[in-house]
């Protein structure tokens, strides 16, 4: 069994919106109370209250109605988040990461989670539990839940990307295939992660490979960065000083900016999901049962200049790996992370070191190999194991290459990869045919009748035709 989470927006009235924000603020009050209690204990040099059961006992001592409409189940979900964060920080500090700090920051809005049996979903209407004595809260979802109703295990109310939404978590079984069509664990495929190509996949035998283009995702990042710079230059004059709240116009501008930021993040996230879905679907078709993924997260700590550091920040390596692992687990495919150092500068045929090419094609000066650089790296990764050993079979990479694109929903991708803010080029059917020229005199030998302009006879706009004698 694997767990999957879908984020769904809400269609609510103003009164329902205020009640939802009231629940999130009450959850923030629970978080602040735990921080204050532990601050008192720290000043008295007492043991902090970090265990979930101990925190639940403190919540029960506070009595009903202390946190508004928030019920005990939602308050306990906040306590669970605090307990997990505290013990995670303690484990990392014990491992030697002294810069890690315990949770001490207050939050105005905290996500609230309710578990199976405390909420009900009927169609697109979800009934959220509230405290005893408060009227029930029923909200409408903007789309149906993509999972069967009996598999939903929890719902989480949160405020993300400038809007209220719920995260629906379901427990799904691993995909079952007919006999003879299930993925074979002995069939291995290497996966090379990149910026221009999010996924480059090649089987260990070199017969099949997949190349997913992410140029639309890169264009979305660039256009969003340019729009953000323009928007900040335009609103810099009316920005409030430090410590000031700002005018109502400024708050509306900031709200609009948050909505645009959220839309950009949703677009990129959806494109990454589409790319990972393409990779997993291709692997199922090829009966690949094991993914050997090159882990490039080691390059994040290396200074590479202002421009390349920006590319690495926009890469979202961790999210890409997580999405691929989740979808592969649902399909019954195992994922192993290996070191990808030197894969883009090693010939997959003769396994000799070559200089890294500047373009996308690799040519080995020692042998006759020539091919795509990312696919060559994926083939080299397919022969590596998590312990560092190399098991590349003696085969030459080649065969069939499948090309796919990620981010077809992004603006400007449907017709062409160009900036959608620019005006499209004028075609012959839409534009002018040019400057009208007078008809040549009859003595020249024109085939049009006397006194007739040949440009007046057109079958379609933008075309010219002459009527013979």
Structural write-up:
InterPro entries: Cas12f1-like_TNB, Transposase. It comes from Paractinoplanes durhamensis. Keywords: DNA recombination, DNA-binding, Transposition. With 469 residues, this protein is of the alpha+beta class. The protein folds into two domains: 2-172, no CATH class; 184-237 and 256-405, 2-Layer Sandwich (Nucleotidyltransferase, domain 5). The protein is built from eight helices and 15 strands. The chain has helices at residues 14-43, 52-62, 72-94, 215-235, 248-285, 306-315, 317-330, 373-382, and strands at residues 2-11, 112-115, 120-122, 125-128, 137-141, 152-160, 163-172, 184-193, 199-203, 208-213, 288-295, 334-339, 361-363, 370-372, 400-405. The strands form three sheets. Strands 2-6-7-1-5-4-3 form a seven-stranded antiparallel β-sheet. Strands 12-11-8-9-10-15 form a six-stranded mixed β-sheet. The chain has a two-stranded antiparallel sheet with strand order 13-14. Strand 13 (361-363) and strand 14 form a beta hairpin. Helix 2 packs antiparallel against helix 3 and helix 4 (215-235) runs antiparallel to helix 5. The protein is globular and about 75 Å long. The protein starts with a strand and ends in a 64-residue tail after the last strand. The model is unreliable at 444-469 (pLDDT under 50).
């Amino acid at each position: 069994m694997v767990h999957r989470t879908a984020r769904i927006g809400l269609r609510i009235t103003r009164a329902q919106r205020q009640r939802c924000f009231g629940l999130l603020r009450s959850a923030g009050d629970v978080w602040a109370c735990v921080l204050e209690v532990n601050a008192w204990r720290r000043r008295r040099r007492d043991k902090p209250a970090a265990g979930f059961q101990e925190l639940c006992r403190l919540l029960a001592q506070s009595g009903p109605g202390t946190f508004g409409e928030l019920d005990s189940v939602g308050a306990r979900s906040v306590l669970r988040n605090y307990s997990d964060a505290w013990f995670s920080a303690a484990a990392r500090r014990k491992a030697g990461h002294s810069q890690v700090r315990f949770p001490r920051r207050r939050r105005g809005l905290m996500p609230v989670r309710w578990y199976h049996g405390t909420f009900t979903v009927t169609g697109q209407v979800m009934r959220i539990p509230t405290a005893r004595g408060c009227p029930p809260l029923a909200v409408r979802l903007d789309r149906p839940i993509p999972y069967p109703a009996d598999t939903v295990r929890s719902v989480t109310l949160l405020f993300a990307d400038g809007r209220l939404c719920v995260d629906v978590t379901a427990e799904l079984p691993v995909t079952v295939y007919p006999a003879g069509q299930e993925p074979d664990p002995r069939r291995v495929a290497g996966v090379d992660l990149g910026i221009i190509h999010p996924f480059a996949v090649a089987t260990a035998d070199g017969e099949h490979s997949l190349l997913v283009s992410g140029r639309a995702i890169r264009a979305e990042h660039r256009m969003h960065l340019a729009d953000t710079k323009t928007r900040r230059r335009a609103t810099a004059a009316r920005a409030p000083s430090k410590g000031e709240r700002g005018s109502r116009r400024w708050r509306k501008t900031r709200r609009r900016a948050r909505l645009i930021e959220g839309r950009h993040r949703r677009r990129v996230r959806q494109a990454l999901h589409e790319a990972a879905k393409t990779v997993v679907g291709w692997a199922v078709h090829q009966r690949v049962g094991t993914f050997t993924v090159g882990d490039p997260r080691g390059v994040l700590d290396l200074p590479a200049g202002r421009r390349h550091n920006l590319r690495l920040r926009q890469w979202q390596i961790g999210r890409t790996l997580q999405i691929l692992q989740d979808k592969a687990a649902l399909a019954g495919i195992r994922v192993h992370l290996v070191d990808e150092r030197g894969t883009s500068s090693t010939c997959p045929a003769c396994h000799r070191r070559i200089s890294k090419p500047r373009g996308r094609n690799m040519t080995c000066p020692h042998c006759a190999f020539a091919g795509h650089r990312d696919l060559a790296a994926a083939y080299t990764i397919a022969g590596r194991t998590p312990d560092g050993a190399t098991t590349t079979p003696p085969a030459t990479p080649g065969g069939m290459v499948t090309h796919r694109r990620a981010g077809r929903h992004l603006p400007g991708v449907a017709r062409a990869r160009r900036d959608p803010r620019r005006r499209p080029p004028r075609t012959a059917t839409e534009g002018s045919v040019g400057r009208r020229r007078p008809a040549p005199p009859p003595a020249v030998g024109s085939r049009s009748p006397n006194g007739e302009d040949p440009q007046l006879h057109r079958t379609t706009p933008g075309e010219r035709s002459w009527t013979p004698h």
